[in-house]
Amino acid sequence: MSDSSLVTRTLIAAEIPEFVTMVFAAFLDTPTEQTMATESAILEPERTHAVFDGETMIGGGSILSRRMTLPGGLPTPVAAVTMVGVAPGHRRRGAMSSVMRAQLHGLHEQGAEPIATLFASEGGIYSRFGYGAAAMRLEISVPSGTEFWDSVDVGEHRVRELDRATALPLIDELHRAVSTQRTGWLSRTPASWEQYFSESEKMRRIKGRTPYRFVLHPDGYAIYFAVPKWGDRGPEGTAYVSEVVARTPVAYAAVWRYLLDIDLIGTVTYEGAPTDEPIQHLLTDPYQAEQTRYDSLWVRLVDVDRALPLRRYRAPLDVVIDLSDEFCPWNTGRWRLVVGTDEVATVERTEAAADLAMTANELGALFLGGTSALDLAAAQRIQELTPGALRTASRAFSGDHQPHCPEVF
Ligand SMILES: CC(=O)SCCNC(=O)CCNC(=O)[C@H](O)C(C)(C)COP(=O)(O)OP(=O)(O)OC[C@H]1O[C@@H](n2cnc3c(N)ncnc32)[C@H](O)[C@@H]1OP(=O)(O)O
């Protein structure tokens, strides 16, 4: 149900603090002065929508201008949607729907980024707006000291911990080099580095934790914090790893070996790992890498004809997709997607008979190559109308790596 008395519009810079306070309240939190500064620094007022009930700001959502690496190693501008919230007492009046409409219809009308992406707070929220669950992430816990295969080379370089100010520029350089190879990774700005790794009040509430620690190798890094703990048999601390990034297999092994050998730590837990994180293959006993799966990126194609050619495909394809898209109706209809041996796609409207039928939600889920068309068809979410089309499409949409986004934005 939508309440026609609500007004949705973009903000000016002076309104950002009110917006941050309102969204934090929606998340049952209150911004400190420091959090207000880091959040305000990343928000773009002209891409931040708020919903007003009279003079009162009661909801909103924001778009961050980012590049995301698409299959084929192609960093591409996307609308990274964040800070969606509606004040308690004003929910289920259509405020969020109004923000979603302003964002997605606005991107279409302005010919801006044809791809929107977000992390959802709850799995039931975003399908109705045409977002599909496009990537998963793992929480991996490994006991300290777990052995690698004898054949694993950790190289000669010393792995060091550096202070934040020295480490961040080196880390930024490594992140830039690797991010262009990893589907789903987003570009970062100085303000977003500050936000992701700030010693915020929320982080300080984790009892007994150390500040972030920065582990550097010439070709890789890790960022973690530790929570020391003492048990009857000795130290049982946990190192919580935010990211492990390496541009060579040797650096990857060296950084993980460092993490698994930190004194006084009993368990290393990597909370936002990709689902194809190689650590499990370094261990002689892969059962030691305990894994829990969570969703990560949700993707929404704003304009399918502009979005589909932006990625590369793994196999030749000539398929007609009958797409239904209630929330962005300009996408509804039949689209012919042709991929040649060069992995490049063309997309055009067609009157030809459809081979596959799906909604915008499934197309978003397929887009990064992390969700299989075969799996979606098995769940009755994609209909195969021409025998064989599903298998070919599934192969073409799959990627070299599983999509992944290390940070929750
Ligand atoms: C990218 C991000 O920032 S994710 C963060 C999302 N924000 C939060 O989780 C903060 C806490 N929650 C909130 O602020 C609000 O409840 C919101 C933003 C999730 C929803 O805002 P509302 O203004 O109440 O949503 P709105 O009234 O537009 O609801 C639209 C539809 O979504 C449904 N819906 C809303 N919230 C949820 C939910 N959590 N789970 C499932 N369905 C939901 C509504 O029932 C409604 O369905 P209908 O069209 O069939 O009637």
TrEMBL record:
Keywords: Acyltransferase, Transferase. Coiled coil: none annotated. InterPro entries: Acetyltransf_17, Acetyltransferase_Eis, Acyl_CoA_acyltransferase, Eis_dom, GNAT_dom, NAcTrfase_Eis, SCP2_sterol-bd_dom_sf. The active site is at residues 126, 409. Residues 6-155 form the N-acetyltransferase domain. GO terms for biological process: aminoglycoside antibiotic catabolic process. Signal peptide: none annotated. Transmembrane segments: none annotated. Homohexamer; trimer of dimers. This is N-acetyltransferase domain-containing protein. It comes from Kutzneria albida DSM 43870.
